[in-house]
Specification:
The complex is a heterodimer of chains A (about 110) and B (about 260). By secondary structure, chain A is mainly alpha-helical. Chain A has helices at about 5-30, 35-40, 45-60, 65-85, 90-105. Chain B has about 260 residues and is mainly α. Chain B has 2 domains: about 30-190, no CATH class; about 205-250, no CATH class. Chain B is about 75% helix and about 0% strand. The longest helix of chain B is centred in the N-terminal third of the chain and has 29 residues, at about 35-60. The chains are: A mainly alpha (about 110), B mainly alpha (about 260).
């Protein structure tokens, strides 16, 4: 199978599967039939999902065989988190992260 | 009599003007759906662009097909799942295993679907069939932040939000593929996306259950992803939600 055909098949299949996941509680199981306890629990889905995404991204950034890169990655995240705590502004947080990445990846400081 | 009626009418008009000014200053009603969507997309655009560039660069670096990559950006509409699938294919994995791994990475979409499902109920059939495709981390979080939008206003907001994010996302992936040969190596670029998620998370930590959900989710996801990376996010999210529920029960007046 050529790379084009293999990649196209993969993204079409993956797209369909993801659509099914997305549509499950819209088309198949009406959300109002969810038990009240589940619906209430989902109110805290956003912080749980966000923290999980951050944890996974951090875990993938940690490379034991490359301590310098790990320290740089943690430094960028700590800087962004500090700015986030101080300003509560997403614009400044993302800006801090972007500047941090530019510093560690493109300057001699990194 | 006439004077008092005129005074009452004048007072009412003044009150209406004050109310309108208040809504204009702070209220959602004064802002059109596309404007709200544009404001939200602007806030998350930098993180999206960074992650899109990473995906595009990775597709180019791994020698995968560029057109399929852009079709996948729109068709899968989930960067981490597509990245997983593409990476596994380039490592010689079978098509089925690569796709299944991508699906596992995106299992959290089930949770988003459950959380947003109620707002899709009662919408036109075409919307209920097609609009769930626009459900990703960023659109879910932005819509959760606009919990007061319902019915037609939610529908228009969601379509604008999803469409604008889609444009930013696909353009970024295409730019990554095109610019990959000339861009300097930036191994930490994806951390811009992490910063975006940090910026989204902190304002949501206003209650004890929310903090419990975040802490539990973080620890669980970190532990699980070091063993099975594909399952990290969904396991963390489920455990975080469950822990918050337990916390809520233990602090509710009925149980004290």
């Amino acid at each position: 199978m050529s790379i084009l055909l293999e990649d196209l098949t993969a993204v079409v299949a993956l797209g369909l599967a993801c659509w099914m996941l997305r549509a499950t509680f819209v088309l198949l199981v009406p959300a109002d039939r969810l038990p009240a306890v589940v619906a209430e629990a989902l109110q805290n889905l956003a912080p749980a999902a966000l923290a999980s995404i951050i944890a996974v991204e951090l875990t993938s950034a940690v490379d034991i065989s490359n301590p310098a890169s790990t320290v740089q990655a943690l430094g960028v995240v700590v800087a962004a988190a500090t700015v986030a705590l101080l300003t509560r502004s997403m614009t400044w947080t993302v800006l801090a992260g972007s500047v941090g990445v530019l510093v560690v990846d493109l300057t001699p400081l990194g | 009599m006439t004077t008092s009626l005129m005074a009452a009418s004048s007072n009412k008009k003044a009150q209406d003007r004050r109310r309108l000014r208040g809504v204009l200053r702070t209220g959602v009603q004064a802002t059109s759906p596309w404007r709200m969507a544009a404001v939200d997309v602007t806030a998350i655009a930098s993180g999206l662009v960074a992650f899109g560039l990473v995906l595009g660069i990775t597709i180019h670096t791994l020698g995968r097909d560029a057109a399929a990559g852009i079709i996948g950006a729109a068709g899968v509409y989930g960067g981490s799942a597509q990245l997983t699938t593409v990476t596994l294919l380039s490592q010689g994995s079978t098509l089925l295993l690569a796709v299944l791994s991508g699906v596992v990475v995106n299992l959290r979409l089930l949770l988003y679907s459950a959380a947003l499902g109620e707002r899709f109920a009662g919408q036109p059939t075409l919307f209920r069939w097609l609009a769930p495709h626009l459900m990703i981390d960023q659109t879910f979080l932005m819509a959760q932040g606009r919990a007061d939008l319902t019915g037609r206003v939610f529908r228009r907001y969601w379509l604008w939000l999803g469409a604008l994010v889609l444009v930013v996302w696909c353009s970024s992936v295409a730019a990554g593929e095109l610019l990959a040969p000339v861009l300097p190596s930036m191994p930490h670029l994806t951390l811009v996306c992490t910063a975006m998620f940090l910026g989204l998370l902190l304002p949501r930590l206003g209650t004890r259950p929310a903090v419990t959900a975040a802490l539990t989710g973080f620890i669980t996801a970190a532990l699980v992803s070091s063993l099975v990376p594909e399952l990290g996010i969904v396991t963390g999210a489920v455990c975080g939600v469950a822990a918050a529920m337990t916390r809520r029960k233990s602090t509710s007046p009925a149980s004290s």
